Amino acid sequence: MRDLKTYLFVVLVVSTLWFGALAGLLIEINRFFPDALIFYFFNYSYCRKKG
Hints:
This protein is mostly helical.
């Protein structure tokens, strides 16, 4: 039972950190590219054409 409590605590902490980092990343992307439907830095064909 103690191992289960430890596992649940670790999952809670790791998931909180993960979703907090993900929310921060999405907020920063939305700050630099407001109302963007397509992010060009994720598009391989756009990056290939520039070089």
